[in-house]
Design brief:
Chains A, B, C, D: InterPro entries: dGTPase-like, HD/PDEase_dom, HD_assoc_2, HD_domain. Chains A, B, C, D: It holds the Pfam family HD_assoc_2. Chains A, B, C, D: It comes from Salirhabdus euzebyi. 4 copies of one chain form a homotetramer. Chain A contains 23 helices and 9 strands. The N and C termini of chain A lie far apart (67 Å). Chain A has 2 domains: 186 residues, Hypothetical protein af1432 (Orthogonal Bundle); 147 residues, Up-down Bundle (Growth Hormone, Chain: A), CATH 1.20.1250.30. In chain A, helix 13 packs antiparallel against helix 17. Chain A is an alpha+beta fold. In chain A, 50% of the residues are buried. At the A-B interface, strand 1, helix 3, helix 10 and helix 16 of A face strand 1, helix 3, helix 10 and helix 16 of B.
Amino acid sequence: MAYRDEQLNEEKVFKDPVHRYVHVRDKVIWDLIGTPEFQRLRRIKQLGTSFFTFHGAEHSRFNHSLGVYEIIRRIVENFRGHADWNDEERLLCLSAALLHDLGHGPFSHSFEKVFNLDHEDYTRDIILGDTAVNRILQRVGDDFPQKVADVIGKTYANKLVISLISSQIDADRMDYLQRDAYFTGVSYGHFDMERILRVMRPLDDQVVIKASGMHAVEDYIMSRYQMYWQVYFHPVTRSSEVILSKILHRAMHLYKGDYQFTLEPHHFVSFFDENPSLEDYLKLDESVVMYYFQIWKDEKDPILSDLCNRFVNRHLFKYIEFNPNHQFGQWMELHKLFTEAGIDPDYYLEVDSSSDLPYDFYRPGEDEERLPIHLMMQNGDLKELSRQSEIVEAISGKKRTDHKLYYAADFIEGLSDDSEIKKRILEILEG
Amino acid sequence: MAYRDEQLNEEKVFKDPVHRYVHVRDKVIWDLIGTPEFQRLRRIKQLGTSFFTFHGAEHSRFNHSLGVYEIIRRIVENFRGHADWNDEERLLCLSAALLHDLGHGPFSHSFEKVFNLDHEDYTRDIILGDTAVNRILQRVGDDFPQKVADVIGKTYANKLVISLISSQIDADRMDYLQRDAYFTGVSYGHFDMERILRVMRPLDDQVVIKASGMHAVEDYIMSRYQMYWQVYFHPVTRSSEVILSKILHRAMHLYKGDYQFTLEPHHFVSFFDENPSLEDYLKLDESVVMYYFQIWKDEKDPILSDLCNRFVNRHLFKYIEFNPNHQFGQWMELHKLFTEAGIDPDYYLEVDSSSDLPYDFYRPGEDEERLPIHLMMQNGDLKELSRQSEIVEAISGKKRTDHKLYYAADFIEGLSDDSEIKKRILEILEG
Amino acid sequence: MAYRDEQLNEEKVFKDPVHRYVHVRDKVIWDLIGTPEFQRLRRIKQLGTSFFTFHGAEHSRFNHSLGVYEIIRRIVENFRGHADWNDEERLLCLSAALLHDLGHGPFSHSFEKVFNLDHEDYTRDIILGDTAVNRILQRVGDDFPQKVADVIGKTYANKLVISLISSQIDADRMDYLQRDAYFTGVSYGHFDMERILRVMRPLDDQVVIKASGMHAVEDYIMSRYQMYWQVYFHPVTRSSEVILSKILHRAMHLYKGDYQFTLEPHHFVSFFDENPSLEDYLKLDESVVMYYFQIWKDEKDPILSDLCNRFVNRHLFKYIEFNPNHQFGQWMELHKLFTEAGIDPDYYLEVDSSSDLPYDFYRPGEDEERLPIHLMMQNGDLKELSRQSEIVEAISGKKRTDHKLYYAADFIEGLSDDSEIKKRILEILEG
Amino acid sequence: MAYRDEQLNEEKVFKDPVHRYVHVRDKVIWDLIGTPEFQRLRRIKQLGTSFFTFHGAEHSRFNHSLGVYEIIRRIVENFRGHADWNDEERLLCLSAALLHDLGHGPFSHSFEKVFNLDHEDYTRDIILGDTAVNRILQRVGDDFPQKVADVIGKTYANKLVISLISSQIDADRMDYLQRDAYFTGVSYGHFDMERILRVMRPLDDQVVIKASGMHAVEDYIMSRYQMYWQVYFHPVTRSSEVILSKILHRAMHLYKGDYQFTLEPHHFVSFFDENPSLEDYLKLDESVVMYYFQIWKDEKDPILSDLCNRFVNRHLFKYIEFNPNHQFGQWMELHKLFTEAGIDPDYYLEVDSSSDLPYDFYRPGEDEERLPIHLMMQNGDLKELSRQSEIVEAISGKKRTDHKLYYAADFIEGLSDDSEIKKRILEILEG
């Protein structure tokens, strides 16, 4: 594995608000950052539509990707010389960290669901396909692109390398918690990363945490919990995501129904066909999406036009607590009432459910098993985190779900006050 | 002046990373924030192309406008009850603060120069024209939109109100210095705003600073100085602005020359004609611009295509120190050499000069006179800041200019090594 | 209740690293801060011996007392105008907040246990006795000192006032968590106090929290949990407290045994007699204690001299996990072995146990019932915090205890290597 | 120079609020920190009496010394491998950094002036004398203590090593500016130290700064300027220092006049004789001084008693602007009037002058020449900082002096209102 790892004449630095500086001294890393595929991440927001809720959350995935790279760089520097660490994996770790989100498209969450895509497939395609990224990775070695793809795809032989990039306490999570907290301005999301990095140890095929750092890890897990509920699952953000999904559904529906768009939606066609080529995929960033939505505001289809207007001008749906499992009758009735009122319930009424599992350990046989975080005790024994930490034990394995019903409140208000339908709808919604 | 100032049922807050919270309790302010014209500011970056230099600088003018509003809100709250303050100006101040940047277009700096526009005209047009903003302001009083426009246009009768929004130590500057420092992550841009707000006093037609706060003001002026040279005039940012201007020039040139664009540039047409209507102006935000640039990357005109590729993928011009006043001969020669080498110097060679005057006091008869900052001594006397502060005195009135020559270094490198032209160009550029 | 509340000509401010500024505009508050009794708090550290563990923790109770005052000032300002708030309680709240720790002596924790004292008694005595503090409080009204004492002593009629100063989410806790985090430099202890202050509401006889602020409260409770285990109960700090207690015990033992001190311990005599007068109490601050300890380093009694040397020069005891409930036999054996080795176990061997109950709600009939934190739901209902928060529910009512055995490891090492006693001691200690 | 540099089994860390963590892996450093001479620095405040002005400023020289050590550790780590750097100087640099303030006594500024001492002599004596520090340094090599003393005394052959510890941009200044800003809570004192450390380069016998880091250095110099005038020379702090000096003068005067102290001032005797031995010197820390001042509050000499009461209870002198060079007549008259009023002007009237030279470059022949800061241009040339920076040029070599007159305002107020003396004194003081 004699890789060619050319060094820059002089270390380059990026000023980063979260990690202060991002340091690059490998020419491969520098060149990867300069590729069109990586620069494209500047045009995709890290938190999708969250900026509607937290106006500071306008940062891009470019930002985050540099951050994950920097954390891995520091971890790998700490690992140098450890018996269980092979420093030849260094450049592989750095590359995988930098590129792990490369396949994200615009507003991934909604796009993936509506168009049945998986950004991980595109990450792999960009790394292995006919791209600037691939050509640069090839310079290191013929098998290097495949290795990078394997690490990101979690199939690489050295599980230790994988766990740095994706585990319950990986560089990805550590960066986004801090970064999203910084840009939104919330007071959650802070934990002592410097300490966590200092207590991480490579051990066989995993990264373990020295027991003396347990409280820093607890703090990290609590931060994660708070960020999920305070930021990522904020109901206002989910409202804008509901509208976004509805726009995509409507546009696809119109396209399949031979609707004549004023401007032919070239960029979207292969998405509507649920089979975008890599080239098409890379062309569709968030500025292109926003361009279309602004055009579609003036489309003649009233639903597409209305929904785009809502999204562009932040005229969102209202919401109430609503559990579809217990309130199925009400759901059916609302659906019927909306239809009767001339408000298409397929576009103006939606239940959204968000769930989070703050920490879990291995349970054989379940889907998506999660590897536990192991503490290394002073005597060298390993103990699973929730066995040692009461706080973590308390929330371990507890899935929490939040259900909300979203609806176009302004349309309801717009109904005649005499209308029985309006009265009944309000009765249900306002309980 | 019996304004209708309806209050919200419950104060609304925005989480803001710089001021922690932005507080809104006037319904007018809340409704202004919800207008399409104000929401559009989310699609215009506060620092234009600076994100190419500082990846964190992706924040929008929406962000900044809320910040200026919040600072004014705090100042006006402090002023309540002062003899020289009329609290009926409160809502006017808040509205003008919120809306002061409303007319900014995409990448304003370059667009204004190339298309001969002035964002202040558009701010005025939005406030006074047929817009949602105007309709909301009208609710306060028939003359209210005009008053807001007058404050922003600096023609309002009460100069005290104007000075809160635009002076050498106004809410605008205080917000952007802190905000831009926060998002770029630089360590400049910090000063004790809380202290400055505490020592501001309304006095006749100006805001004065209690002498005990002089050092906080010194710190603010030094922050401003550092931010200009470290962030706003960063040579890499200016490189991207040079390219941006060249794109706009080239596209206009092609348009005027009856070039057939693959995609008709509808959004740009009235800009190329240097007379965009308000409606056209509002439609052109930065996602639309980026959409066109990505389309233009594939245009058949090689210059437009190349320049757009450079901008989209951050493939910028290199630069050297170059003073056109002293090096005019070299400039002429380079121009000629570029032409001979087949590299159009109108698009690939440019001198850019940036100047800053960190602080100045009134000098009768000069263009753009600047009002001085006055300190109020313990005995009530007013003294101009630079008379009291050695630091400010040292930099007062000293204009500093930086000249740089930008050029497409890769094109020069691409010339044959035998070429005499190449040798001579490199001789001049590398001194 | 027509109190005399004279205002200062001009508001005074203290620069505070935690709350940025502490604001004073009541002359009574200003004068209280200037009393010898309050200034004395500068000579008593907020965290006792914690500076041995965290070198930044050198801040005094003076610091913290100003901070608690400032938090209450902000809360009371927010409460003004609420139906359930009587603004005539304002000055009482401020005074009680400022003075609540006034009776703390040097290294209170250890002193109180060894000499059987209660700092709350002294707080009361200072407020009601012949002191500068009392004379200033009297200026407000004859019954004012008594009211202040009642609030601090939790016997005041208006329970709402008491709950601001002492409850599970009071100004005292909010200040010390943030302040102690700031000075130690740990990354725990941060929570969004600004938000908590905004969601606090006076309701009948308690302070409730608007439900929308629940997560900020969760964060506060988790901070509290982390600070207890990471800072307050740090085993190194407890080691120095063990030594401190041993010094006091030894000195008292010598005094009672008619030992002739080289320097008569005037300041300690009434403490040894377990009945210090108020005057004696106020004279013994931490500089006086440290003076004596330095003198006692040179006393001829070897135990007193050795212990003082350990404390002054941070030559602490080592520790191991040790549960006296389960390891009583080992404890007995160690005691015996130490005695045989000529190392007095009464001074050189000690079990220390620390317990914390992070949050609890009311359980009738138990000692020291704790009032719950109530959330106010949107419909006005009150719900106890742990019913709404899974995180809090998880840790609610769970008392955690940590036991450690402290011993003079250097003395054991100093024993002859052949010694059977040494071997057996090490066997037990090193398990 | 084959030094014995034993490493610790495991790196030790101190949590530091300014540098986050202080790292120790050399056994010598660890052992030095544990010596009584170094632990004594915990009992000497970094900013002397500044805590009277900024209540947060209670941090000790122990704190600061660890900080300087940590900065040097980072610099030396960066230097490793540079052609002009000899890594064998590493341990010497670390030791000198840690110990550079070792000879400071209590409230050094005042003690040194009154008793005619120089803390640098004591630093040298501790390092070279019969101390724990000396014995540990000896373990490295017989000549090592002398080398450490030479570096601190600025006589060491390798000037590069000296300049790390004492120059216009050394580790000492970088630590105290940040640390004092942190503990006082002022917003000055911040600069981008991480950047400065990255642009420092060893070059022959000095440390130079890469030109690209010029603005970070400007920021550092401005921070220094602001800290001097906002914190270090704050008039309230100087008021307490005036009183402190007066106490020491009075006590010495009484001692020399055969006054019988209630408690024999053992710790002070050799200071009064202006010749304390090293042993005496080390015994007198700030807790001992505070102990005496509290005892002296009750001395029968009214001046000593009054002054100690003022110091202990922060009952300070008032001050006005007063230039003794221009107001000599008034000074003479005040002196006379105070005497006539029975207020001893030797103890209750004082002019204090503070001066600062923010930055200077070498001027041959002047006292206390200062080495300039050199920038290293891209082409390798060196330029003196003020030639490149307008800001620094503006303040370079400009000495600023502030004069204040301090007096016991309460004594003046206490004079009979009819008194002509009182009227005349107030006339002069209140201008």
